[in-house]
From TrEMBL:
Main location: membrane
Extent of the signal sequence: none
Domain of life: Eukaryota
Gene name per UniProt: MPV17
Annotated membrane topology: Multi-pass membrane protein
Subcellular location field: Membrane
The protein's name: Mitochondrial inner membrane protein Mpv17
InterPro entries: Mpv17_PMP22
Magnesium among keywords: no
Length: 113
C-alpha cells in the first residue's frame, strides 16, 4: 500500500509526467508478458529492443481490423463495469490491470510471425 500511496502522491503532484511513465511502463510490461508467457521466448531470446520500442510508444495502434474491433468491444465494457461497480479509489487500478492485458495482446498481435 505504501507504493500505491507514493504513486498517488506523484500522480497528484505531476499528473502528466506520471501518466506518460505509467503508459510506457504498461506497454513495456505488456510486451514482456507477450514475449515470455504467450510466445514463450525465454530470457535468452527476449527481444529487448522490441520491449523498449513498445515502452517508448506509450500507446499503440495496431493496423489489424480485428484488434481495432476488439478494442471497441473491450474498453466500453471495462469502463461500464468500472464506473458502475468499482469504487472511485480503485478505478485507476482496474483500468491499469486491464491495460496490461490489452498491451500484451497488442504486442503479440503486432509481433507475431
Amino acid at each position: 500500500m505504501a507504493l500505491w500511496r507514493a504513486y498517488q502522491r506523484a500522480l497528484a503532484a505531476h499528473p502528466w509526467k506520471v501518466q506518460v511513465l505509467t503508459a510506457g511502463s504498461l506497454m513495456g510490461l505488456g510486451d514482456i508478458i507477450s514475449q515470455q508467457l504467450v510466445e514463450r521466448r525465454g530470457l535468452q531470446e527476449h527481444q529487448r529492443g522490441r520491449t523498449l520500442t513498445m515502452m517508448s510508444l506509450g500507446c499503440g495502434f495496431v493496423d489489424y481490423p480485428d484488434a481495432l474491433i476488439t478494442n471497441y468491444y473491450l474498453w466500453p465494457a471495462v469502463q461500464l463495469a468500472n464506473f458502475y461497480l468499482v469504487p472511485l479509489h480503485y478505478r485507476l487500478a482496474v483500468v491499469q490491470c486491464v491495460a496490461v492485458i490489452w498491451n500484451s495482446y497488442l504486442s503479440w498481435k503486432a509481433h507475431r510471425l
